[in-house]
Amino acid sequence: MHGFKTTALAGAVLLALSSTAANAQSATQLKKELDALRRQVELLAEQARLAAPAADARELAELRQQVKELKEQQAKAQPAAPAPAPTVAADADQATRDAATVATKADIQGVRADFENYKYENARQLERKVPSVTRNTSIGGTIQVRGTWQNPAQNAGVDNGATGGNTSFQATPRHTSFDVPSVTLSFAGTLFRDYTEGKNLTYTLGLASGSNFAGSPQSTSSAGRTLGVSSPTGSQLSITNANLAYSFFPTNGGQEDAKGTLTAGQQLVPFGLEAQANEEIRPVINSAQFTSALSGINTRQIGLIYRGDSFVNVDYTNNYRSALVEYAFGVVNGSGPNKSDNNGKKDWLGRLAFTLPADYTSWLRELKLGVSYYKGYNNLANSTSNAVVQIANSTRAGLDINYTHLPFSVAYEFVQGKDDTLATASATATASSPTFVKKSRGQYLNLGYTWGEQFLASEKSLAKYDDYWPKSYQAFVRFDSFDADTLNNAAARAGSVGDKTFITTVGLNAFFAETTKLQVNYLLARNDAPSSGIYTSDRPQKSQGLQVQFQYGF
Amino acid sequence: MQRRTLATAFSALALLGLTSVPASAEDKPTVIRISFPGAGTGGRPLSGGSFPSNAHLFKEIDDEFKADGIRIEWKFFPGAGPALNESYANGLTDVAFGHGDLPLIVGRATGLKHRIVLSSSRFGSSYFVVPAGSTAKSIADLKGKRLATFKGTAGQLTLYRWLDKYGFSDKDFRVISLDNDSTKAALATNDIDGTNITPFDLQARGIARSILEIRDDPKITRPGTVWVGEEFEAKYPQIVQRIVTRLVKVAYWSTQEANREKELQAWATSGSQAYVDYKKDWESVSDLRTRINPLLDDYYVASLKNSIEETKKYKLIRKDVSIDGWIEPKYLNQALKELKLEDYWPQYDAEGKLKVDGRKLAARN
User: Fold this and answer.
1) For residue B146, which of B161, B164, B134 has the smallest C-alpha distance?
2) Whether B89 and A361 lie within 8 Å, measured CB to CB
3) CA angle in degrees (0–180, nearest 5) for A459-A465-A466
4) Interchain pair B79, A252: CB under 8 A
5) Best exposed site among A49, A180, A442, B150 by fewest CB in 10 Å?
6) Cβ of B43 under 8 Å from any chain A Cβ?
7) b or e along A293-308 (b: 16 or more beta carbons within 10 Å of the residue's beta carbon)?
8) pLDDT tier for residue B81 given thresholds of 50, 70 and 90
9) With contact defined as beta carbons under 8 Å apart, do A191 and A202 qualify?
């Protein structure tokens, strides 16, 4: 009997000792052990009641004490009770109280549910509402909406010879017109991304609507000047850019790395400033006259062009980057956009530009001098048979100076074209018909003054909650002249006079939202006298116009 | 080109230029443009991590000038310190709240004229972090690989100091430029092999891990700076004094242990660092005055000089930079006197060692 009691006591003590690690045991297990111990105590009590020796009574009392302690431990081990929160001072602020408040499992489940809801909603939106593309792509575009007033009025009844769609002949003279002169759509993206060095392969696809807007003073034909220029594709959307480009130099190393990219396909020609300026940054509504008058550089071309720079200077004041030398060279068809080569000769082009290495705060910052050259070949055709009878030389040489030191900006560009031209009537032209070199010359000077921060990277990227964009205003004056034949000797060549136009444009651009600007241009055009000395109504001595254009992008 | 027309055009432009210059002889500005070299995640106009941030988050400066009708225009530049320089160079910033050493110095080297009136922060921990799946255990393991830093910011010099400390230079790696958010994304996609960034949130998300950690080493990190434009200071010295005094008051509040949680949580709202980053990064700081210290003491001056030498060494500036006349402590001294805090903050010697312990003050509002 005693042996049993001792064993029971030892077991109870062992249980008590082992249960000190209450946190390691589950409450259920503890309860089972407690019940077992209770049964042993009751058994012992029954035996004590029968035998009642004093020593056993003491042992019984000890066992009762142990059972009491075990009950206390069980109470402490209740799993539902949260851990007590750290105490905080009575006057602690809410943030301190929050930091001392323990999250429950229900809190975490609530957050998890929110995450799941978000993930579901996001996946649902992606599946149902968001367009997808095969490769990385960004989409953009610009639209121009324009109102024009001109004096003298545009004349009626002059055939502009246009055969494209949407060309409306003028029935009665008019002073005003509403136009949508241009709509562009662009897609650009990365076909192969080099994560190591950023030698990426990218692509561009651009589309633009041609328009038949009226009264183009820079047109080389009198009909065009009077009635406007008919787009060869009417108002249809045609491909402008279609190319892919590979960077031979790293592009993710930082601004101090030189650049070098080969672009294959249809693209803008790297000639001068104006010819390669896109609609978003061009200050004047109408481009300089030479850009539309001189073939080769007046349209996009298909071919291979390499563009790069060297001797890069980075002013870490504001990460301002300038390259001492920028260069471009390439070979193209020369027959314009969306056309295969129309003769057996390729056109060649090159450009070099030098930017003065200067700190950002220097007054000499962004002073750039560039020279461009384009060597092309034009087909001379017999206008009766439409047969090409000669392949003529056609060259373009340009000089440009640009100084953009906000708020001031100055741009000057001089371009001279040389074209072999049939000396005899084209209707009877043959392979042996004599030709002469017709020189044409265009130049412009643009002076600008800008208020606001539109052109500062730091300001336009400012962190804001709303649709912030720095308001900017840009006033400018441009003097633009083009002489289609610089001989200017009616006796030697009748067409060399009466072919020069000088246009002064004064304008104000208001940039009031990202990718959106309102342009107001006043134009005063003056034409030189024709060989007859008598100005005609479609080419008056002076004409003036007012253009208001709203250009927006997306 | 017709000469007369050209002359008329130039005259018109010159007139435009002259009339656009703001004429002001007032004793107070209508607006004070205060800039932070950074912004919150997603381009939110928020900042964190310093007592000048608190001045914005708790509208201290706005309140200071509310009665005067002076509007505070807060500017936050995702382009960081270099973008702030561009803004100031174009006359669009009056005061900078916490410019890092590199953009501050290159700005000075290229002719930006400002006066240093306060230190915005000092010391702090720095971590070398690699993608979670990286096997690298040391900087040596990353030799020849891609390291990211935001070039032109103070982080660039911090990275160079790390490399220097372990016997390397930037030439031993391919150092690319990424901003803070892009660096986190690049760690997640393994597009970079290492960087300096606070790692705790990234570690919790399983994106990255820290392989090295340097806590409060004065030779690795450099103080931030509060400056005012020289022209603004010359025109409105009383306004500058009020800005500085209010900032010192905010700095004092920010050093109170009772306010620790409030400011850590407020800083985290910007998202540039998660709450857990601030919490763990600051948990070793038992006395907040260690890092939140506006003094222009020996340590500040020596740090600036050291940073100038480093900037020259790494050929990030071409011209020499003198600190003569650059630091203007009179506003700070006046503020400390006015607020009776002359001996509140600990002062450090040129080596970053404690020189004079800070006075203990009971918390006050």
Assistant:
1) B134
2) yes
3) 85
4) no
5) A49
6) yes
7) bbbbbbbbbbbebbbb
8) very high
9) yes
Nearest to A463 among B39, B151, B258 (CB): B39
Query: Which of these, B324, B328, B314, B316, lies nearest to B107 by C-alpha position?
Result: B316
Could you tell me the pLDDT band of residue B15, with boundaries at 50, 70 and 90? very low
pTM of the model: 0.79
Share of chain A above pLDDT 90, in %: 43
Residues B103-135 as b or e (16 or more Cβ within 10 Å = b): bbbbbbbbebebbbbbbbbbbbbbbbbbbeebe
* Amino acid type, A64: R
Give the long-range contacts of residues B286-291, CB within 8 A, separation 24 or more. Answer: B287/B255, B287/B346, B287/B358, B288/B254, B288/B255, B288/B256, B288/B257, B288/B260, B289/B255, B289/B344, B289/B345, B289/B346, B289/B358, B290/B122, B290/B123, B290/B216, B290/B346, B291/B121, B291/B122, B291/B123, B291/B124, B291/B216
Closest CA relative to residue A274, chosen from A396, A418, A413: A413
Convert the pLDDT of each residue in B84-116 to its tens digit.
Answer: 999 999 899 999 999 999 999 999 998 899 999
CB A445 within 8 A of CB A479: yes
Is the bond into A407 cis (omega within 30 degrees of 0)? yes
- Inter-chain contact B258–A96, Cβ cutoff 8 Å? yes
For testing contact with chain B, the best of A199, A453, A458 (most B CBs within 10 A)? A458
Which of A455, A442, A443 minimizes the C-alpha distance to A408?
A: A455
Task: Report how far residue B60's alpha carbon sits from residue A153's, in angstroms, rounded to the nearest whole number.
Answer: 63
Q: What mean pLDDT do residues A59-77 have? A: 73
pLDDT tens digits along A91-139: 888 888 888 888 889 889 989 999 999 999 999 988 888 888 888 899 9
Burial group, residue B286, by CB count within 10 angstroms (0-12, 13-18, 19+): exposed
A contact residues 46-85, partner B, Cβ 8 Å cutoff = none
Q: Which amino acid is at A212?
A: N
Q: What whole-number distance in Å separates Cα of residue B121 and Cα of residue B50?
A: 6
Q: Which of A340, A339, A407, A398 is nearest to A369 (CA)?
A: A398
The reported pLDDT for the residue numbered B206 is: 93
Beta-bridge partner residues of A516 = A513, A552
Nearest CB to A317; choose among B20, B107, B191: B107
Please identify which residue in the block is written with the tokens 């804001």.
Answer: A464
Instruction: List residues bridging with A539 in a β-sheet.
Output: A536
pLDDT at A251 over 80: yes
Q: What b/e string do you get for A83-113 counting C-beta neighbours within 10 Å, with b at 16 or more?
A: eeeeeeeeebeebbeebeeeeeeeeeeeeee
Say yes or no to pLDDT of A168 above 50. no
- Please report the residues numbered 53 through 82 in chain B whose beta carbons come closer than 8 angstroms to any beta carbon of chain A: 75-79, 82
Interface residue A92 vs chain B (CB under 8 A): yes
**Where is average pLDDT lowest: A50-64, B123-137, B244-258?**
A50-64
Q: Do A453 and B89 touch (CB under 8 A)?
A: no
Interface subset of B 267-306, CB within 8 angstroms of A: none
- Higher pLDDT: B36 or A221? It is B36
Q: Which ranges constitute the DSSP H helices of B117-179?
A: 154-165
* B353 touches B122 (CB < 8 A): no
Of B43, B146, B261, the CB nearest to A95: B261
Decide if A154 contacts A214 (C-beta within 8 A). Answer: yes
B-chain residues near A441 (CB < 8 A)? none
SS3 B303: helix
**What is the spatial distance between Cα B86 and Cα A361, in angstroms, rounded to a whole number?**
9
Is the interface score ipTM higher than 0.85? no
Residue that is written with structure tokens 């594709």 in the block: A233
A364 touches chain B (CB under 8 A): no
